[in-house]
Amino acid sequence: MMEFWNRFRQNRGAVVGLLILLLIVVLAAAAPLLYPKSPWSMVQRPFLAPFAMDAFPLGTDPMGRDVASAVAHGARVSLLVGLVSTVVSMLIGVPIGAIAGYFGGRIDDALMRFTELFQTVPSFALAVVLVAIFQPSLYSIVIAIALVSWPPVARLLRSEVMALRSREFVEAAILSGQRARTIILRQILPNTLSAIIVMASMMVAAAILIESSLSFLGLGDPNVMSWGYVIGAGRTVIRQAWWVSFFPGLAILLTVLALNLIGEGLNDAMNPRLKRRGK
Amino acid sequence: MKHETIAKPVVEIERLSVALPDGADRPYAVDRVSFRIAPGQLLCVVGESGSGKSMSANALMGLLPEGVRVSNGRILLDGTDLLTQSEDALHDIRGRRVAMIFQEPMTALNPLMKVSAQIEEVFEAHGLLTPAERRAKALSLLEEVGLPDPPRAAASFPFQLSGGQRQRVMIAMALALEPQVLIADEPTTALDVTTQAQILRLIARLQRDRNMAVMFITHDFGVVAEIADYVAVMQLGRVVEEGTVEQVLFNPQHDYTRKLIAAIPKMQAGMRAPVTSAPILTVEGLTKTYRQGGGLFSRPREVHAVQDVSFSLAKGETLGIVGESGSGKSSVGRCLVRLQDPDGGRVLLDGQDMATLRGEELRRVRRRMQMIFQDPYGSLNPRERVGRIIASGPIAYGEDPAKAMAEAADLLEMVGLKRDAAHRFPHEFSGGQRQRIGIARALALKPGIIIADEAVSALDVSIQAQVLDLLQSLKRDLGLSLIFITHDLRVAAQICDRVMVMQKGRVVELGSGAEIFDAPRHPYTRSLIDAIPGRAHEARMI
Amino acid sequence: MAKFILARLMKAALILVCIAILNFLLIQAAPGDPAQVMAGEAGETDAVFLQQLRERFGLDQPLYVQLGRYLGTILQFDLGYSYRQQVPVADLIFERLPATLLLSLSAFVISLGLGTLAGVLASARQGRWQDSVISTIALIFYATPLFWLALMAVLLFSVQLGWLPAFGYETVGADHTGLRRMEDIAAHLVLPAMTLGLFFMAVYARMTRASMLEVSRLDFVKTAQAKGLRPALIQRRHVLRNALLPVVTLAGLQAGQLVGGAVLIETVFAWPGIGRLMFDALTQRDYNLLLGVFLVSAAMVLLFNLITDILYRLVDPRIRVTA
Amino acid sequence: MRHVVSATLALLLTTALAQAEATPGGTADLIVQPEPPGLMIGIVTNGPALAVGGNIYESLLRYDETLAPMPSLARSWEVSEDGLTYTFHLQEGVTFHDGTPMTAADVLFSVNDFLMKTQPRHRNTMAQVESVTAPDEATVVFKLTQPFEPFIRAFAYGTMPILPKHIYEGTDYMTNPANDKPIGTGPFRFVEWQRGSFIKLEKNDAYWDKGKPYLDEVIYHVIPDAASRAVAYETGVVDILPGGSVENFDIPRLTELPNTCITDKGWEYYAPLSWMWLNNRNPPMDNPKFRQAVMYAMDRQFALDVLWNGYGKVATGPISSKTPFYSQQEPVYEYDPDKAEALLDEIGYDGEPIRLLPIPYGETWQRWAEAVRQNLQDVGIKVEMEAADVAGWNQRTANWNYDIAFTYLYQNGDPAIGVSRNYITSQIEQGSPWNNVEGYSDPEVDRMFEEAALAYPAEARQEIYDQVQVKLQEDVPVAWLLELTFPTIYNCKVHDIVTSAHGPADSMRDAWIEQ
């Protein structure tokens, strides 16, 4: 673990990413303390410019709602949506990929054809349709994001599992009488973990982007204040009140950036192949 | 053939040190190494993995990996120090005056370029000849290195050639500009023994014809005996002993050299009493065919990996299966334990046909036949502790986990490791130790038969000898039957009661070790034995 | 090769039918139907009116009959009629297709060209400031919400600077012809194609860089060095060609996705493309049109995948024999 | 407040400039939003279709801003003393765009045949009509079964367009190819429609009102994004932003641009009134006190000022102040959260969550729902916002699957046409989002609306409508919000775009551009 951290630390970008993400997580966690009032409450006059009043450093939106509060509360939602939809798509993609990769043959064929179906329809368009059909709510958004994001997971898992499947320690496990389930869970999956974690960090970032894009098209959950929603709400007034969409946009940018930096750092740290040494 | 040369050396390496980056396991990959090579002379640099032999070659070529640098010393080529040359001058020298061939002919060629183009490029790099001339030259080079049908080879992509052919292409490329110095970094290690013999002969011939200085890097003393004029033995970055072949191989002074030479398995089957006990395993007409590709319209390509293989294995017997790559020897092993399903034939284990069992029944029978794998790095799950790796078999068969773990510790002791190794992860062990763990795992289920698939091939010779000893003694103590699959005839000769020689999926000869090695009847067996490097000099090595 | 293409085409047809069925069923899960939407818009409705509309659209039939009819029409290479606009779906789609193809292919060319170029540059200067700058910019584009970028671009280049038109496909009413018209369309194309391209550009830059670095470590590069080839030539001839293989794969995947995946950009820039058509069809519950758009964009994906595979087979000799 | 002043100023300015001499020529560029499904307004009657189709088709009458009838295809008309016979004399020399003369036969065909098949509203109106006849080529006579005072306001182009008989007779109206190339009598002719991009109309040289129209071309641009539409105006691509083209938040900024005029006129006929359906079937909305609490809880003035830039008016009750027979009645509901809380306490509201369904018509409406949610939550009503697109919203309201739902409806010139439908028992019928969706049922209200519709003349009707307004304002069957108006923003060089109660949608027949 220590060794892993040391390797991770060598990537300056990853450390910066981690710091940014920590900051955002802290912001999300502290939002109810920092801004006890609902972010929806109209607290000042509309279109208050940023830094005009100390109490409202990021200004107010066209309804007189505090943008800073929205950014803080939005962090909770965006992170949650990103995280949960990633977990859900992992829950779909990992088993499908693992089963396809492990058993191969017809099972693999069938599962991969199924995966292809999802990849053949442009993914954002599919997400839009899914959310529209099931009507926007946190659930439908998470499900839609998960449904369009799992195929790459399945493909990654499949190729990883296929590679591991022919590794000798897996064959040894077969010979030692372990059953397929045990082998997949104990022998194979732990070895795909680093690939999964790297992918997951990137997927959280992508999910946050998809959620904000959906909100931009008016397909967000109206009950929660997410960054995507705030930008969506601010975009029509972007020229009178650039700050309304600017700050949450910046928040998304930083978060996604941080997650990608971390993903790269993890990739470097977990992939000793990149550690070059002489023979 | 060996001739002392008095010519002025073309390469002189003086007190060369190559520093490794911070955090490496030792400060210097190469530590104050000196040697010289004269035109027409072949220097073998020999050593085990990690000895720094490749790094010295790379330093000479000026192609050290990033982060690794020469910290001291001089590399003189015809009296000029390469270390002081500009990058530009070095470009000129590489390929023209010093050329290099590598171990992996598969990856050393650009997969997307035709062979001819890759050779022509050498001329292009140095601004020589017209394109048409280059093409003609490439063709004649391919002919010179003995490729059958050179025009076709020239128009091929690397993947369309065999390993030996690719290595010939590499050599053609290296020879293109008639360099003074050729560096060959383990050029035959990845090749089959018969191919290796051909390539060695080719290198020797070219060296003689062109009066080149050759620096030949290898771990194989057989190869050294075969072609070297001069030998330098390296250990942990240092040259521990050097001299002529006579001196180093037949009269080694340094302990390390002696140890290495002693560890080489001897090509003597020795007289063993035939094992007469009843067969525990009988294989009849085993067949396996691989089918590749094939879709709606295309017929799958078929490879007959195993064809009608029959043999039996007596209790307590060691049966060797030898052959070159693609001979089907590994497929036989894998079909026996049903890692692959055979297409035909019977595998009778105590009278029960294992070849057709399925599911739970297969699982029950299979515990009696376990396997030891080739790759000490790939055969242990890096995320499981050693104790668990060994115990998971018995646990899977319903053993109490605590008891299984205790037994695992016993097994670790039995294979020569400490009990507390059980709590550690595989990466904390060396290759040889890992192979011991693999053996312990195979033993955990108390099998009657162990199949060792190239179990010592990836190990350095000194380690190899230890592991072979361990296997021998375990077999004796536990009354095991052993099927030993290997490409290395020396190893087979050393431990097998009987040997089965395979070629292209078929058994060409099956007999006792003495019959096979001392009086081979089949021409293929004979060619295999003849190809073993250094065989002629074996008797003189201690 | 012909065999290969034929086999792939048959597989593609099968996938398309599956997509048609799945999406047909999926759409049924949506609340409301086209009759309701149209009745709602009329501002006044009664049962007779709704019944009229439903009969006209065949929505009064059981689901399996509707599905059967739909599959029947698409198997005749017909996409049916748009409920709402009473025009053949194919007409609506093919009317939009040129705009979509123009936008997505321009974005594709921009992103692939600039992206790989940036990636090559960054890898050549690995660890130096050029690498840092390119990598950072790529990462930022990669992390920026596309629509946000689009809005900023409009603000800057259209509103503030007035250099480029803010939206649309061409200047309406200008009635340009020939070269003038092409210039006009090109001017309209710049912003949407750039913004759409920037994200993918970042993807390609990052991928090319990583791939170049990875290939640089392979043995044959060392062989090339040993031959005495100059670094620039090694990069170009040996590293780049091999490094582009994964880029080709990705490019194929994304070229397909671009066609139906530009909903956001088409919305912001009022670009009359397929993405918007889909979004409108969706809110209007114009089932046939929506299904048609899905089928056409899926067909595009499959087509581009096929093209990629063919390209790949041409570039990489290994595939030709083994696959 | 400033906005209102500037708007008034702008209005004054337009009026002043309107005196100037109209000059022919030029192209007017407008927005149409969203893209209409078709332009044949005998079949498609949604807002955008009417906005474009109004240039192509005409009806017998037009209406001024007090809803008094003006000549259109009818040169003059008489109503008999008993209010049962309406006689219209048609203009002379009217031809359809294909050159065929328009006669009484076309009117009969449209009224008796075509529209009866395609338009539910027309079927409703015609329920009062005994016969329609044409004594000669230029005269049409409507005979009513009983006096129906609103009838004179039923001849708008949107409800009774006159269609070419020679093209449609004997064909399937719905699939007639002419629907794609609409042919009417209007001041402009259809030229081209590039779907997703623009609709182009050109001057009808043979228009019956000689000298008109002034414009050579009218182009309606389709730009799906509100912000882009604003940019289109700023960059001069379009000259006129009809009401609803841009988000309300953008209006103040746009009106401050140089040479920009704004008018909130032209909505008198439709008189859109917004309210929230309160599902009277579900507790606690079944309790009038709860409904009153909702009225007190809402800060409607805030919504008017912030969301609608002050354009419009806080609604007092079911009838818009622009619609005939409106009268100011008690009770009115001022913003009074304390009173709302008191009422909630009184009925013992237990904090059961209430679902709130916004209407998916864009930003302003979404923001409005958010503001209302905040208002309701402030007095202790727990609100869960739901989301639905247009189809979803239609289905939810039409099938009564909601607790509180936003909506707005046109009053169409008369309470008997546009108001009673939302409150009388006979209009409780699933499937339409425009009838008595809230499920309010009161025999007395039913009786009063019935009598008021048929009373004759107007004074008799006024009396009953006064009572209805009182009764409904006490019961609060729905929560009235604002009388809306959607101001038109336009370049001041364009004149006379609003010359009737239908506003710019009624055609660009009088509009002209300063050269």
Features:
heterotetramer; A: 279 residues; mainly alpha; 10 helices; 74% helix; C: mainly alpha; MetI-like fold; 2 domains
Structural notes for this entry:
Chain B has 542 residues and is α/β, with parallel strands linked by helices. Chain B contains 19 helices and 20 strands. The longest helix of chain B has 18 residues. The two termini of chain B are 22 Å apart. The relative contact order of chain B is 0.11. Chain C has 2 domains: 74 residues, no CATH class; 219 residues, MetI-like fold (Orthogonal Bundle), CATH 1.10.3720.10. Chain C has 14 helices and no strands. Chain C starts with a helix and ends with a helix. Helix content of chain D is 30%, strand content 19%. Chain D is built from 15 helices and 21 strands. Chain D has a 6-stranded mixed sheet with strand order 14-18-13-17-15-16. In chain D, strands 1-10-9-8 form a 4-stranded mixed sheet, with no helix packed on it. In chain D, strand 15, helix 11 and strand 16 form a beta-alpha-beta unit. The chains are: A mainly alpha (279), B alpha/beta (542), C mainly alpha (323), D alpha+beta (515). Chains in contact: A-B, A-C, A-D, B-C, C-D. The interface between C and D is large, with 56 and 56 residues.
Rg result of chain B: 25 Å
| Tally of alpha and pi helices of chain A | 10
Can you count the helices of chain B?
Answer: 19
Low-confidence stretches of chain A: 273-279
Strand content of chain A: under 5%
Question: What is the assigned CATH homologous superfamily of chain A?
Answer: MetI-like
The CATH C-level class name of chain A: Mainly Alpha
